[in-house]
């Protein structure tokens, strides 16, 4: 485990150095980058991906994957609108129920994966289509707008000068970091990903851990959905399309092994910030939105190549 | 994804008859599902079974089946490619641009296939020699291809395609050419996978990569080759896709990679590698197309299509897991 730990540190060090270089380059490129307003705004934009990426770290550490998060986000957004406008529920109740629905979506993923032994890639590929289809079917391409003013605090407002969702993200970073790094549940997560059969024989409740993790993944995707609606003031059924790619990129960029067993929350946070900084910096220096995707793809591949070359001790 | 506990390649010649049927179970299930769907929808709305509609279903979706052939090889070898939709989008655009800018027609048909092979050989090399998981490489490729395509073309329409370029609209014996491509390529690859040494190599690598290595199979070279072949099929699919209509929109068709992967998996290709056939993936592609069309004929809002698809994937995968358990 110590050898693993050292290689982990190494990946995160590479990442931190890379991040400093990128931030430095961006700061010299554009004087608008290192302004408080811009940095806080970037924090606002990365909160949704960030929330989902935290739990995705757990998912990938167990050796699994959850491709359905973007669809759960979309479904939650649609349900929020339907509960509130069409069923006439008070908005706070609608918010809670929508997030719970996201959790149920995650629970279903977990049940398919643990009870029926369907590989996570396939299970969540199926529910990616299913949940997005439900969102499209329920909404029939109608959007819901006109939410009360207080609701926008979540996605557009500030608390003590910092975007509301950044507080939520910060709190969950600490919670996730403590759980993965310091608790027995965290150790069980690593053990499951490193050697599932071994973990089972050691008496670890592998299935229960996975069930909890996939449910949590659905819950944060639901929470991200509610924040998304609050940020853009409307619901549409295509919200969160492709979110899973951004999330997985952040997590893998952060040094989590796609084969499971390795990864940290700090790494994910670094990966997330690096991704957002690249997006923003390129946009400021005049690269169009689609050009930035190219760079992110390149960075993802290069980061993994570099980390493979520097730490040749293990697989992946 | 590789080197996992997987059953021996399916349909090995020495199997007992009932086992052999069970081994081809997925193909029978799919065939049954297609027939059942046709009968039920045909009773509700006989126009569904009209020659015109059936031709449209087959011809309009053959490119998905063709792409799924290559995808099946990749998945059987224990890998995955989530960038295939973006690759097809790029290759279709390249093909269309060559055609409208006065290059010879044969070049517009051939270039996508060659470029597809080169790009995916690169992807395969990263996977095989640098040992980067295929999902990570192709996730990166997806971003690069998709972003690159849109930032270069801004999604513009390519129009004024020459008449003799539109190969997907050609007919032979009254049957549209995409159907010929789908049927012939599926049959050829199915036979090749079953009887050629390289076909068995792909199963061996996906079944147990270490055993394959010990058995003297050059795993790295074979992996690159599998990805390259997959690139060729993506190229053919791109040409069929590009020549379907009179115009090409130079963007990535939404969710195409998922549709292709889904066709492979529902067709019985195990995501764990080592098992599956391309006949199954082609049948699955036909089934999807039939479902999409039947929703229209049953007057169901098209917005429900994706949930029906998702549910269908789940059911087939669960049925497959149950069948596998019985086989053991």
From TrEMBL, chain A:
Subcellular location: Cell membrane
Transmembrane segments: 51-84, 91-113, 166-190, 211-230, 250-275, 287-310
Database matches in InterPro entries: ABC_transp_permease
Protein name: Autoinducer 2 import system permease protein LsrD
Secretion signal, residue range per the UniProt entry: none
Origin: domain of life: Bacteria
Lipid bilayer topology: Multi-pass membrane protein
Function: Part of the ABC transporter complex LsrABCD involved in autoinducer 2 (AI-2) import. Probably responsible for the translocation of the substrate across the membrane.
Lineage of the organism: Bacteria, Pseudomonadati, Pseudomonadota, Alphaproteobacteria, Hyphomicrobiales
CDD domains hit by this protein: TM_PBP1_transp_AraH_like
Organism whose genome encodes this protein: Kaistia terrae
Quaternary data: The complex is composed of two ATP-binding proteins (LsrA), two transmembrane proteins (LsrC and LsrD) and a solute-binding protein (LsrB).
Keyword entries, A-Z: Cell inner membrane, Cell membrane, Membrane, Transmembrane, Transmembrane helix, Transport
PANTHER family associated with the record: ABC TRANSPORTER PERMEASE PROTEIN YPHD-RELATED-RELATED, AUTOINDUCER 2 IMPORT SYSTEM PERMEASE PROTEIN LSRD
From TrEMBL, chain B:
CDD domains named in the record: TM_PBP1_transp_AraH_like
InterPro entries given in the database record: ABC_transp_permease
Transmembrane segments: 21-44, 56-75, 82-100, 106-129, 136-158, 170-193, 223-243, 255-272, 279-297
Subcellular location(s) of the protein: Cell membrane
Membrane topology: Multi-pass membrane protein
Keyword Oxidoreductase included in the entry's annotation: no
Superkingdom per UniProt: Bacteria
Record keywords: Cell inner membrane, Cell membrane, Membrane, Transmembrane, Transmembrane helix, Transport
Coiled-coil segments: none
Function: Part of the ABC transporter complex LsrABCD involved in autoinducer 2 (AI-2) import. Probably responsible for the translocation of the substrate across the membrane.
Subunit composition and interactions: The complex is composed of two ATP-binding proteins (LsrA), two transmembrane proteins (LsrC and LsrD) and a solute-binding protein (LsrB).
Name of the protein in question: Autoinducer 2 import system permease protein LsrC
Organism from which the protein derives: Kaistia terrae
Lineage start: Bacteria, Pseudomonadati, Pseudomonadota, Alphaproteobacteria, Hyphomicrobiales
């Amino acid at each position: 485990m110590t050898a693993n730990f050292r290689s982990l540190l190494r990946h995160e060090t590479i990442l931190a150095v890379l991040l400093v270089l990128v931030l430095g380059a961006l700061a010299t490129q554009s004087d608008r980058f290192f302004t408080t307003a811009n940095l806080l705004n970037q924090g606002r934009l990365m909160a949704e991906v960030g929330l989902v990426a935290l739990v995705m770290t757990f998912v990938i550490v167990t050796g699994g994957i959850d491709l359905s998060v973007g669809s759960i986000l979309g479904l939650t957004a649609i349900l929020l609108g339907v509960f509130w406008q069409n069923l006439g529920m008070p908005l706070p109740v609608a918010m809670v129920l929508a997030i719970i629905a996201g959790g149920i979506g995650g629970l279903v993923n977990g049940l398919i994966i643990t009870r029926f032994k369907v590989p996570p890639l396939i299970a969540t590929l199926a529910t990616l289509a299913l949940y997005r289809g439900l969102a499209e079917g329920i909404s029939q391409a109608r959007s819901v707008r006109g939410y009360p003013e207080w609701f926008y605090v979540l996605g557009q407002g500030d608390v003590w000068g910092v975007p509301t969702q950044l507080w939520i993200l910060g709190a969950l970073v600490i919670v996730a970091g403590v759980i993965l790094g310091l608790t027995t549940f965290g150790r069980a997560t690593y053990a499951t990903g490193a050697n599932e059969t071994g973990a089972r024989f050691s008496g670890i409740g592998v299935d229960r851990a996975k069930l909890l993790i996939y449910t949590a993944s659905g819950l944060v995707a639901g929470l991200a959905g509610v924040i998304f609606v609050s940020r853009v003031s409307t619901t549409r059924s295509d919200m969160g399309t492709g979110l899973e790619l951004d999330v997985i990129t952040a997590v893998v960029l952060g040094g989590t092994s796609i084969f499971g067993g390795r990864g940290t929350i700090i790494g994910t946070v670094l990966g997330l910030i690096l991704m957002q900084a690249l997006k923003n910096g390129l946009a400021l220096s005049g690269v169009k939105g689609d050009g930035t995707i190219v760079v992110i793809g390149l960075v993802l591949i290069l980061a993994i190549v570099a980390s493979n070359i520097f730490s040749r001790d293990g697989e992946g | 994804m590789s080197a996992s506990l997987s059953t021996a390649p399916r349909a090995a010649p020495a199997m007992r008859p009932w086992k052999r049927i069970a081994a081809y179970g997925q193909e029978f299930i799919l065939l049954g599902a297609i027939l059942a769907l046709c009968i039920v929808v045909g009773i509700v709305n006989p126009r569904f079974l009209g020659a015109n509609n059936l031709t449209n279903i087959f011809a309009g979706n053959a490119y998905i089946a063709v792409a799924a052939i290559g995808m099946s090889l990749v998945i059987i070898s224990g890998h995955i490619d989530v960038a295939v939709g973006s690759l097809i989008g790029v290759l279709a655009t390249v093909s269309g641009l060559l055609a409208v800018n006065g290059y010879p027609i044969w070049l517009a048909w051939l270039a996508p296939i060659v470029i597809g092979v080169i790009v995916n050989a690169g992807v395969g090399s990263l996977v095989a020699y640098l040992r980067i998981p295929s999902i990570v490489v192709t996730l990166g490729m997806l971003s690069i291809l998709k972003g690159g395509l849109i930032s270069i073309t801004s999604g513009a329409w390519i129009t004024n395609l020459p008449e003799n370029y539109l190969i997907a609209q050609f007919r032979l014996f009254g049957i549209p050419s995409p159907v010929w491509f789908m049927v012939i390529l599926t049959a050829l690859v199915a036979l090749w996978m079953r009887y050629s040494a390289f076909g068995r190599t792909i199963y061996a690598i996906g079944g147990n990569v270490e055993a394959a290595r010990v058995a003297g199979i050059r795993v790295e070279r074979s992996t690159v080759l599998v990805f390259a072949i997959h690139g060729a099929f993506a190229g053919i699919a791109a040409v069929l896709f590009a020549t379907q209509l009179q115009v090409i929109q130079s963007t990535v068709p939404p969710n195409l990679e998922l549709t292709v992967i889904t066709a492979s998996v529902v067709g019985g290709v195990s995501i764990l590698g080592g098992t599956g056939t391309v006949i199954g993936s082609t049948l699955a592609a036909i089934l999807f197309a039939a479902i999409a069309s039947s929703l229209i004929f049953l007057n169901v809002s098209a917005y429900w299509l994706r949930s029906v698809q998702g549910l269908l994937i789940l059911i087939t995968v669960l049925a497959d897991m149950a069948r596998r358990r019985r086989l053991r």
